Every structure is written in C-alpha cells, then in structure tokens.
Amino acid sequence: MDRVLMKGNEALAEGAILAGCRGFFGYPITPSSEIAEYMARKMPTIGGVFVQAESELAAINMVYGGSSAGFRVMTASSGPGISLKQEGISFLSEGELPCVVVNVSRGGPGLGGIQPSQADYFQATRGGGHGDYHTIVVAPSGVQEMMDLTMQAFYWADYHRIPVMIMLEGTLGNLMEPITVREPVTEFVDKPWATNGCKDRAPNVMNTLHLDSDFLEKRNHHLQAKYEKIQQECKRAETFMIEDADIVIVAFGLMGRIAKKSVSEARKQGVKAGLIRPITLWPFPDDVIKSAAQTAKRFLSVEINMGQMIEDIKLAIEGRVPVEFYGRIGISPNPEEISRQIINIAAREGWI
Amino acid sequence: MAVEQQILFAGFGGQGVLAMGQFLAYAAMGIGKEVTWVPSYGAEMRGGTANCQVTISDEEISSPLTENPGSIVVMNRPSLDKFENKVKSNGTIVINSSLVDRVPEREDVTVYQIPANSIAEAMGNVRGANMIMLGAYLHMTGPVKVEEALEHFDAIFKGKKPAVIERNRQAFMTGVEWARNNQ
User: Fold this and answer.
1) Largest CA distance in chain A
2) Which of A85, A139, A152, A251 is the most exposed place for a label (fewest CB within 10 A)?
C-alpha cells in the first residue's frame, strides 16, 4: 500500500476513526488542537459527532454519556485540560466505561508552557483522579504508532471496559513521517451493558455511587481483579541491544526513539549500551526491566520531566542495580546530548 | 550503514520555511526514502523565528532531531547567527543572500549563496522566495534531485488550486535556472 505523509496528531485522529470512533468531545489546547481540528473536519462526513464543549469538564462528561450508550468515543487535551478531566476519568473507571483520552503533554506545573514534556507521567500512571483505579496508558514513539496504538487503545478500552490514555510529548504530535494507513476495524466487542434502549430487556443502569460499604468493597475487588488481568496481558516494551549491555537506557515516547540513536552512538564509542522503551506506561513493563537487571550494571532513566518513571524502574529492579536519571523540561533533547550522558557515566565507571 | 542526511530550514515565520521542509519531505517519500519532518513549534507567528528539521535515510530513522545537522538552509540573518556553529564539519550552509548581509565565518563548510528575494521580486512573485531557494538548493546540493522533486510536484501540492501550483512550480524552476547559470 502507498505510504502517506502524516502529522502525528492527525495520524492519531485518523486511527481513532478507523477504529470506529464516532464521538469526539474536546476543548482546544496547544499542542493537542490538531486532533480536534481533524475530528471537526472528518466526523460530520462519516456520521459521527464532533462537539467543541464549553469546558474540559463538559467534554469528559460527554465522553461518559457517549460511552454509556455504547459508542467508541474519545477526547484529547494537554496537561492543564487533562487535570480538569480527572473527575470524569475516575467516574468512567468505576463505571467501567470504555473510552480513549489523549494527553499531548506540555510542560507544567500550572499552565506551564506549550513546549514538549513527559511531566504528566505520575498523573497518567497512578490513576490521576480520586479512588483506587488505573487507566491503561500507552506511549507511541512515531507517527505509525500514533495510528496503530490508537486502534489498539480502542480495542483494549472495549475489551477490558476501561479508559485508555494515550500520552505523547508535543514534539510527536507535530512530527510528520510516512505511514501505512490501516484498514478500518469491522469487528467490535459486544456491549450488553450499554444504555442504548431497553425494549424487551431490563434497563441497564450506569451508577458510580455505592453507599453500601460491602458493595463498595466488592466493586473495588472487582476492579483490582481486572487490573491484575491487564497486568498479565497488556505489558508492552521495545528492546534494543540489551543482551550484553552494561548500561540500559529507559525512555518512552519519541524520547525513547531519540535515545535509540544515542545508544548506537555510544556503541560506536565502545560503550555497551542498550535501550528499553516502555510502550505501555501502565501496566509498566517491569518484567523486561527486571530481566535486564540480571546482566546490566546500571540503568539510566531519560525523561522529559524531573524524574518520574525512574520510580517504576527502581521498583522493578528492587535495588539490585543503581538507577541514574537525566531529564529536561520543555524540550525534546537531541540524541547527542543523551550520548554524552551515557559516555560520561561509562568513563566515570571506568568501562572505557 | 546507509547515509542519513539531516537538514535544518530556518527563517522568519511567514517565509514559508516549514513548507520548504515539508516539500523536501514529500519529495523524499516520493522516491522511496524514509523521512521525518519536525518543526520547532511554539507561540510563533509571522515575524517570529521558525525552523524545521528534515531527516532523510534509506533505513528506519531513529531520531528526527539532531544537534548538528549536515546542512542548514537559512532564510534570514538571525538564523545564520543562531545555527552557523551547529552545522557538522564538512557540512553545507545555504544562504538567502538577499536577507543575510554577511558570509559565514566557518571555513570547514561549503557555502552556497542564493539571492532568493531579489530573484522573487524580479519575477514578480515575492512570496515565491522559498520555492526559488528550494529549486536552487536542490539543483546545487540537495538530497533529492530536481527531476525527482518535479515528478512529485503535483502530489506535494495536492488539494491546492492549479494556479497556486503553477506559481510555485514557476518559482521553483526559476530557482533551478538561476542555480544552473550561477554555479
């Protein structure tokens, strides 16, 4: 098939449409707005719904409504907007309502800036809102993955009845590269729970208020069992040259791809470097990290934040190997910058 | 390992700098190369600085970003000042000499000077300076050949009015022609 040159944000939006998304509810914010723009153009032409809501809170509650009715629905925003959506994401999680939430991240805290960031890692992977819940979080590294992981996200959302978050740094939303456009999804997961008309059956009810404490606890155990299953089934990571690596870089998103070049460069300089790129941030691919820790002498977490994923790496390694950190904010570092970090560590440790 | 080429286009917002990079990206894809295009995005509007990086390779591209591009195409003086020292040794600097009033100080790079705005004014298409620059650049040293770019010209401007495509093609060819006569 012919390849098409697409912008990351547009490939994501097209991927959603191919996956059968027919409801988009959003409120514009840089650097996510191309997704809403694309949906505004496309949705009316395919029988879908595009609503520019009056606020982020309204948008996420429209997602709640659309999902309850059994539709594949999505919203997209950036850090400050995602914070506003957290109440709704918590409700969606307890309602077990499938949906896709996109965070094209920018630097914070506060309104921060519009430049790229991965500083919402904690928010994304720890639930983000109130209560004991998780969302599946995927982190694409290129424009093809923007499309493919979006389609995967819709499948996981329906299959596990869970909100799935797609998180990327702003640079990737703006990146263009050729991709293969996928075939539209034609088979969908049944949704017998949907509130889509109850002729000849008992009504379905969506409710997240559980004043009975026994039932509330039962609900929580039910959710935990689901999260356990997702942990078993959904962990994804890409590895690169880790078999004999002395130092393993861990980086996600476009950053993970940039770091691949740094690893190749470090190898040319005689440093045995390798890379693990988590594709799912939750569930975190701790199995791959743990296994690499059996041979690696050191880990280096590279993030566009002040050090967040490093905690998950340390949890996976359980103190067996030292973990160092290198981070920036508001900029996607160049590969050369990361190579220098790797080589500095190698020189300091006497490996070269 | 296949050679990977990384080119940075820089200038004022409004000079069509991002479009120059996109043109090259489309052309490179047209001839079957791997390619990435990434803008330095920001709150920039017309008059601010704009730049984008294009990476072209025969193999899968890991990083679309680099500290040291092999070539830079600079449309104004601030861009030359900012990026001259970033270019790789033995790299290339292509200058819009209509708007850049100095030559590079570096002696380890190849310099091409193209008076893109003067040529554009002479042909009565002031906004065509970026396409003139591209045409001349591709003829002199570009990673994609002029003929290859022309083959994909219509596809690159897909969705644009025929008159707009024609205006761009004329500007592009004027740049190529200028380069032929002045190299």
Assistant:
1) 75
2) A152
Chain A: residue whose CA lies nearest to B22: A176
Contact between B36 and A258 using a beta-carbon 8 Å cutoff = no
DSSP B10-56: EEETTS-HHHHHHHHHHHHHHTT-EEEEEE--SS--TTSEEEEEEEE
Q: How far is A273 from chain B (nearest CA, A)?
A: 15
Cα torsion angle, B69, B70, B71, B76, sign: positive
- For A313-326, how does the pLDDT look when each residue is reduced to its tens digit (9 = 90+)? 999 999 999 999 99
Closest CA to A69 of A136, A135, A23: A23
Q: What is d(CA A183, CA A177) in angstroms, rounded to the nearest whole number?
A: 19
Q: Which chain A positions have a beta carbon within 8 Å of B60's beta carbon?
A: none
Chain B residue whose CA is closest to A141: B62
B19: containing domain: 5-182
pLDDT confidence band for B40 (50 / 70 / 90): confident
Query: What is the domain count for chain B?
Result: 1
Rg (CA), chain B: 15
**Rounded CA separation A72/A67 (Å):** 6
Q: Do A335 and B66 touch (CB under 8 A)?
A: yes
**According to the model, what pLDDT value does residue B142 have?**
85
Domain boundary among A233, A258, A291: A233
**Å from B119 to nearest chain A CA?**
30
* CATH number for the domain that contains residue A18: 3.40.50.970
Quick check: A177 and B36 CB within 8 A? yes
Contacts of B63 in chain A (CB under 8 A): 257-258, 260-262, 334-335
Question: Of all helices (H) and strands (E), which one includes residue A121?
Answer: helix A121-125
Average pLDDT over residues A203-228: 97
- Residues A179 and A317 reside in one and the same domain: no
Q: How confident is the model at residue B152 (pLDDT cuts 50, 70, 90)?
A: confident
Q: Which pLDDT band holds residue B98 (cuts at 50, 70, 90)?
A: very high
Cis peptide before A31 (omega within 30 of 0): yes
CATH code at A288? Answer: 3.40.50.920
- Asked if A311 reaches chain B (Cβ–Cβ under 8 Å), the answer is no
C-alpha to C-alpha distance for A85 and A129, rounded to whole angstroms: 9
Q: Please tell me the total count of domains within chain A.
A: 2
Give the closest-approach CA distance of B22 to chain A in angstroms: 8
- Residue B34: list chain A partners with CB under 8 A: 177-178
**Confidence band (pLDDT; 50, 70, 90) for B1?**
very low
Question: If you average pLDDT over residues B102-130, what whole number do you get?
Answer: 96
Q: Are residues A110 and A25 in the same domain?
A: yes
Gap between the Cα atoms of A115 and A92, Å rounded? 29
Q: Is the pLDDT of residue B149 over 80?
A: yes
- What is the distance between the alpha carbons of residues A275 and B11, in angstroms, rounded to a whole number? 36
Alpha helices in A178-252 (DSSP H): 213-233
Q: What is the extent of the structural domain holding A122?
A: 3-233
Same domain for A72 and A208: yes
